[in-house]
Amino acid sequence: MVHYQLQQLFAIDLLIMLAPQNDVVVSWRPSSEFPGNVYKGEGVISGSPEKVWECLKPVPNGMRVKWDNNVKRFELVEQITEHISICRTVTPSAAMGIIAPRDFVDVILIKQYEDGTISSN
Fold first, then answer.
1. Residue range of the domain that includes 78
2. Which keywords does this Swiss-Prot/TrEMBL entry list (predicted)?
3. Residues 61 and 116 both lie in one domain
4. Do residues 76 and 39 share a domain?
5. How many whole angstroms separate alpha carbon 62 and alpha carbon 20?
6. What is the DSSP string of 27-50?
7. What average pLDDT does the structure give for the chain?
8. What is the distance between the alpha carbons of residues 103 and 88, in angstroms, rounded to a whole number?
C-alpha cells in the first residue's frame, strides 16, 4: 500500500517539469495532503552504483554527514531487520537562522535488486 502511494505521489506524468539545470530536473505538482507543492529532483551521477551508494547510504558516520551541509548528525536508533532501520537525522539551522535546527526520526528501508540497483527512502 505504501509503495503504491509513493509511486502515485511521485508519478512523473502527474508532475510539471521545470527547465533542466546542469543535468538536474526538478518536477512539482500541488500536494493533495497539504497546501503547497510536492517536489521531485532527478539527476544522473557518473559512477558505479556501489560508489554512489557509499556516498548516499543512511548509516552513522557515513559519507553523507561529511558532504551534505544539511545533515549535521545521523544516528541509528534501532536496527529492525537487515533492510529496515529507525534513524535520527539532525539538521542545522537554515535561512540565516530563520529556520531552527530540526530532528527527524525516519523508518528507512534499503532494498537491493538482482541487477545491482539499490533503493532507499
1. 48-121
2. Lipid transport, Lipid-binding, Transport
3. yes
4. no
5. 30
6. EEEE-SSSSSEEEEEEE---S-HH
7. 82
8. 7
First to last CA, the chain: 15
> Sign of the CA dihedral 74, 79, 85, 86?
negative
User: Is 81 found in the same domain as 103?
Assistant: yes
Given a cut of 60, whether residue 14 has pLDDT beyond it is no
d(CA 17, CA 11): 12
Are both 73 and 100 inside the same structural domain?
A: yes
Q: 97 with 55, same domain?
A: yes
Q: What is the pLDDT of residue 3?
A: 40
**Residue 22 cell numbers, joined:** 546542469
Exposed, middle or buried, 115 (CB in 10 Å: 0-12/13-18/19+)? exposed
Q: Copy the grid coordinates of residue 68.
A: 551534505
- C-alpha cell, 30: 500541488
